[in-house]
C-alpha cells in the first residue's frame, strides 16, 4: 500500500515516542511540515495524499536524528523568531521564544528614539543568528544595527539572515570580544549573553548540551562573566539617554542589577518570560541632577 502523509506522520510519532521524546507528536508534525514546506494546517487536511519514496526517506533520516536528541530546528536548519526566518549554523544559538520578550521590551524605546532623532543606533552584543537586532530592525524601519560576536561563523550567519529578511542595508556585523573592537555610541545596547554557570552545563538536556555551542551558553563560574565585561564598558558606548536591555537567567536579577548599578546605571524596567521567570532587565544612566525622566 502506498505511503501517505498520515502514515509517515504516525510512524514518525511512534518512533520518537519509543525514543522517549516527550513532545513526539508535535515534533513529528514540525519536522514533516518543515521538510516538505507545508504548513501544519495543510499537513492535516492533506493527510490522505501519497508521499514519494524520496520524501519518506528524508523524513525517516530526520526522525532518526531527532530520536538521537538533535533539536527539531537544528535538523531543519532554521527557525522562526519574531516573524523572521533565521538560518542556524554550527556556532549559533537556536533563538528562543523567551528572547522575544527582550525584543518586545525594547521596541518602544527604539520608537521613542526615532521619534526624537529620526533614527536609532542599536548594538547587539553576542548577536548569534542576529535574532534580536534583526527583529528590532524589522519592527522599526528607521533603526540601524551593529551585531557583534566572538564567532566568525555566527557573524556570517547573522549577515545571511539580514540578507534573507531584507534588512542587510541597515545591519552590519563586527567581530569583537564584547566591546573591545567597538567604536562610538549607541542609543540601544542589547545583549543576550551566555549566562549559564559552567558547572551547570553538563546537567543540561542533551538537546542543548550537545547541539547549542558552548560559547553561547557558558557564563563562567557564577554565570556573570559577560555581564561584568559589558557593564564595565557600557558607559563609554551609550548615548546620553540610551538604554541597555539584557536577557538574564531566572535567578540573576539581583546580581546583574548590582553589577550595572556599580557602574552608574539604574534599573528602569524588567520583564518576566512566558514561564513567569525574571528574564529581561532594562537600565539607563543613573543621573543625579537634571534627571527629568
Ligand atoms: C546566548 S547566545 C545569544 C545569541 C543571540 N543573541 C540570541 O539571543 O539568540 C550568546 C552569544 O554571545 C556570543 N559570545 C560569547 N562570548 C562572546 C564574547 N566574548 N564576545 C562577544 N560575543 C560572545 C556567542 O558566540 C553567542 O552568539
UniProtKB/TrEMBL annotation:
This is Release factor glutamine methyltransferase. It catalyses: L-glutaminyl-[peptide chain release factor] + S-adenosyl-L-methionine = N(5)-methyl-L-glutaminyl-[peptide chain release factor] + S-adenosyl-L-homocysteine + H(+). It comes from the Bacteria. Substrate binds at residues 192-195. Its EC number is 2.1.1.297. It comes from Sinorhizobium numidicum. Belongs to the protein N5-glutamine methyltransferase family. PrmC subfamily. It is an enzyme of class 2 (transferase). CDD domains: AdoMet_MTases (cd02440). Residues 118-199 form the Methyltransferase small domain. Methylates the class 1 translation termination release factors RF1/PrfA and RF2/PrfB on the glutamine residue of the universally conserved GGQ motif. PROSITE patterns: N6_MTASE. One of its GO terms (molecular function) is peptide chain release factor N(5)-glutamine methyltransferase activity. Residues 8-77 form the Release factor glutamine methyltransferase N-terminal domain.
